[in-house]
């Protein structure tokens, strides 16, 4: 409702600004900036959570990635694909090679064509991508009331608030406040832009059973799967931070050598005396 | 030469020794640069690595793998 008001106010201003841009750039810069309404303004901003990997020198928690994959496989993967992550990407990150090979062998992958020109099924290999729930976008929409469950490979980078947003979204389902009519087939979630999301609440206490005995509460599962997706979006995260430590550290040491060298080289110019006669 | 260095005081003697041993011949000097940069890089990277590990104690995959529960009995699923 508020946004409709702002849109009615701002859209003519945008049009006016755009037409005057041709007239002269200097004039344009003096005009008041048009206020733009973003879809995000209609959503509750997610709180910033102090993740185990938040700090400048903090790595991902491998145990959380491991649990997060369990949550993804048991809950999320029934609707969401992850077509940029292959089984081999999990090796050495949260699973051993043997474990991942077993996981891959459990799925059927269509491969081919063979020498007769036919497609055939074979057990999955390390190089296969994680199995997608639907063969194409149309099938995904048809199965989900017209809404497309987005691919989750890069979702943390693709949403404002990143993993904070995911955690808030997954734990943020509640009854709609009075005065808000939720359309049929949608669910109220204040963190989703617009407030109404086509995905039902997916995480309930005990939805998965963790092999390491962690209590599978809603917030724990949301935290773990958000960590897993943060890793999927940025697998180089740990190495990036470690290299940052190494390079910034090395250059901080070199800085003092450079400082000395500069003073050394300049000492001649700083101490000479010029005489003009 | 040793007598001349002995006559010098502390720091100057060290510098004179360094010069005589490492820097007088170019071949020795270049070798010193290459070998010492290799050694210093190794030492530096070992240092940052142990700092990184101490900051992120318990979070790396190696440590998580070490405390995994035994998995031998349930290999049917």
TrEMBL record, chain A:
Q: Write out the transmembrane intervals.
A: 243-261
Q: Which domain of life is it from?
A: Eukaryota
Q: Which residues bind heme c?
A: 76, 79-80, 199
Instruction: Paste the cofactor note.
Output: Binds 1 heme c group covalently per subunit.
Compartments (UniProt record): Mitochondrion inner membrane
Cofactor(s) listed in the protein's UniProt record: heme c
- UniProt entry tagged with the keyword Transport: yes
Q: In the record, which residues are listed under signal peptide?
A: 1-17
Single GO BP term: mitochondrial electron transport, ubiquinol to cytochrome c
Q: What Gene Ontology terms describe what this protein does at the molecular function level? A: electron transfer activity; heme binding; metal ion binding
Instruction: Cite the entry's keywords alphabetically.
Output: Electron transport, Heme, Iron, Membrane, Metal-binding, Mitochondrion, Mitochondrion inner membrane, Respiratory chain, Signal, Transmembrane, Transmembrane helix, Transport
Q: Which GO terms describe its cellular component?
A: mitochondrial inner membrane
Q: Which intervals hold domain Cytochrome c?
A: 63-233
Q: Which Gene3D superfamilies match?
A: Cytochrome c-like domain (1.10.760.10), Cytochrome c1, transmembrane anchor, C-terminal (1.20.5.100)
- Family stated for the protein in its record: Belongs to the cytochrome c family.
Protein name, please? Cytochrome c domain-containing protein
UniProtKB/TrEMBL annotation, chain B:
Q: Give the GO cellular component terms, alphabetically.
A: mitochondrial inner membrane; respiratory chain complex III
Task: List the Pfam families.
Answer: UCR_UQCRX_QCR9
> Where is the protein localized?
Mitochondrion inner membrane
Alphabetical list of Gene3D superfamilies matching this protein: Cytochrome b-c1 complex subunit 9
Q: Is rRNA-binding a UniProt keyword of this protein?
A: no
**Keyword Acetylation appears in the UniProt entry:** no
- Membrane topology label: Single-pass membrane protein
Family annotation (InterPro entries): QCR9 (IPR008027), QCR9_sf (IPR036656)
Which UniProt keywords are present, listed alphabetically? Electron transport, Membrane, Mitochondrion, Mitochondrion inner membrane, Respiratory chain, Transmembrane, Transmembrane helix, Transport
| Chief location of this protein within or outside the cell | mitochondrion
* Gene Ontology BP term (one): mitochondrial electron transport, ubiquinol to cytochrome c
Q: How does it assemble?
A: Component of the ubiquinol-cytochrome c oxidoreductase (cytochrome b-c1 complex, complex III, CIII), a multisubunit enzyme composed of 3 respiratory subunits cytochrome b, cytochrome c1 and Rieske protein, 2 core protein subunits, and additional low-molecular weight protein subunits.
Similarity annotation: Belongs to the UQCR10/QCR9 family.
Q: What does the UniProt record say this protein does?
A: Component of the ubiquinol-cytochrome c oxidoreductase, a multisubunit transmembrane complex that is part of the mitochondrial electron transport chain which drives oxidative phosphorylation. The complex plays an important role in the uptake of multiple carbon sources present in different host niches.
What is the protein name for this chain?
Complex III subunit 9
Organism for this UniProt entry:
Gracilariopsis chorda
């Amino acid at each position: 409702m508020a946004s409709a008001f702002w849109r009615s106010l701002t859209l003519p201003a945008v049009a006016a600004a755009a037409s005057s841009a041709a007239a002269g750039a200097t004039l344009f810069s003096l005009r008041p900036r048009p206020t733009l309404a973003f879809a995000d303004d209609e959503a509750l901003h997610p709180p910033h959570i102090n993740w185990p990997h938040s700090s400048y020198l903090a790595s991902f928690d491998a145990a959380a990635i491991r649990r997060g994959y369990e949550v993804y496989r048991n809950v999320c993967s029934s609707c969401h694909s992850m077509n940029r992550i292959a089984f081999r990407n999990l090796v050495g990150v949260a699973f051993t090679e043997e474990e991942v090979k077993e996981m891959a062998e459990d799925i059927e992958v269509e491969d081919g064509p063979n020498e007769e020109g036919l497609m055939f099924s074979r057990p999955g290999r390390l190089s296969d991508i994680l199995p997608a729930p639907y063969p194409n976008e149309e099938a995904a929409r048809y199965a989900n009331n017209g809404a497309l469950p987005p691919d989750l490979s890069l979702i943390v980078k693709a949403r404002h608030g990143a993993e904070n947003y995911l955690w808030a979204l997954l734990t943020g389902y509640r009854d709609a406040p009075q005065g808000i009519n939720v359309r049929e087939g949608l669910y109220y979630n204040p963190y989703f832009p617009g407030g109404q999301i086509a995905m039902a609440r997916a995480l309930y206490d005990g939805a998965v059973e963790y092999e390491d005995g962690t209590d599978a509460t809603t917030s724990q599962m949301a935290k773990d799967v958000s960590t897993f997706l943060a890793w999927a979006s940025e697998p180089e995260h740990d190495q990036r931070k470690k290299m940052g430590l190494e390079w910034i550290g090395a250059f901080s040491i070199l800085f003092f050598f450079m400082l000395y060298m500069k003073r050394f080289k300049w000492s001649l110019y700083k101490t000479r005396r010029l005489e003009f006669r | 030469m040793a007598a001349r260095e002995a006559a010098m005081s502390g720091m100057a003697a060290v510098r004179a020794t360094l010069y005589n041993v490492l820097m007088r011949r170019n071949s020795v000097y270049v070798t010193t640069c290459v070998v010492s940069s290799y050694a210093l890089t190794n030492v530096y990277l070992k240092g940052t690595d142990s700092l990184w590990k101490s900051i992120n104690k318990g979070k790396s995959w190696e440590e998580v793998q070490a405390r995994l529960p035994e998995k031998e009995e349930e290999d049917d699923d």
